[in-house]
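Hi R.,

Here's the chain you asked about this morning:
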Amino acid sequence: MPALDAFGTYATLLAMSEKQREDAVKLLSVLTVLDTQTQQKLAGERHIEHRLVSLDDLDARPIQKGKSHPKTEFGTTLQMTFNRQGFMITTENFIGKPNDKTLYGPTLDLFVQRMNAYPGGAVTD
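And the predicted structure, written out as tokens:
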């Protein structure tokens, strides 16, 4: 689903206060940068200048750890599910670096348990 395009349309066309519109346009700008950087990463680029690492703190930088073999640490992984009305249904916070292959199944199970139905679609990163 072209979520970013849809958000871009709604951010400029829906009736809202000037402050809400300002916030929506700012978020759209950040999400557009994130989309561009995601495409760069998928294309195989290993170093992306001024890479976004947090949507809450746009100036945040990854923590470099170790001297001989620097490793980048990203903190925790937060996984959430939402219904069509935009209400958060489930949330899980994973400490460390969980295996991506094991994240989707349990979250889907939690969603089905809470909503008594399967989602109509899924967006993943």
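The chain has three helices and four strands.

Let me know if you need anything else.
M.
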